[in-house]
Amino acid sequence: MVSTDFQILSNPLHLEQVIENLVVNALKHTSDLVSITVKDSVIEVQDQGDGIPAEVVERLGTPFNRGPHRSGREKGSGLGLAWVQSVVVLYSWNFELRSSAGRGACAVLKFPAFES
């Protein structure tokens, strides 16, 4: 659902990679639904997984920062959120990662207002 139109100034590939990383991470870490909400220049990606350990959230943006895997079969290098953080800093976007044990994680990406 989009309540208002908004513009994002960036390399389209960077924006695509950020959104893809957030959605793929959410899908990897839940066996339930993933919701994606776009509203008022904010994109939220919410999963219903186990949540992200506080020490992983604290080190957000650090390469190879991975939490424990449930089955031991999950793949991932811990570079996805580091890439997201790099792009967020490059464009002065705001990124927040919220997590509750057993209730999932929510990635919130806020874009600055753009006056045309």
User: Biggest β-sheet, characterized?
Assistant: 4 strands, antiparallel
Task: Please tally the helical runs, counting DSSP H or I stretches of 4 or more residues.
Answer: 3
Report the sheet-strand fraction: 15-25%
Oligomer description? single chain
Outline type:
globular
Helix content: 25-40%
CATH topology: Heat Shock Protein 90
Tell me the strand order in the biggest sheet.
1-2-4-3
**What is the residue-mean pLDDT, rounded to a whole number?**
82
Radius of gyration: 14 Å
- Please name the fourth-level CATH homologous superfamily: Histidine kinase-like ATPase, C-terminal domain
Q: Can you identify the CATH class?
A: Alpha Beta
Describe the structure.
It is a single chain. This protein has 116 residues and is an alpha+beta fold. The protein has a single domain (12-65, 77-110), classed as Histidine kinase-like ATPase, C-terminal domain (Heat Shock Protein 90), CATH 3.30.565.10. Helix content is 29%, strand content 21%. The chain has helices at 12-28, 54-58, 80-91, and strands at residues 35-39, 42-46, 94-100, 104-110. Strand 3 (94-100) and strand 4 (104-110) form a beta hairpin. Helix 1 (12-28) runs antiparallel to helix 3. It is globular, with a radius of gyration of 14 Å.
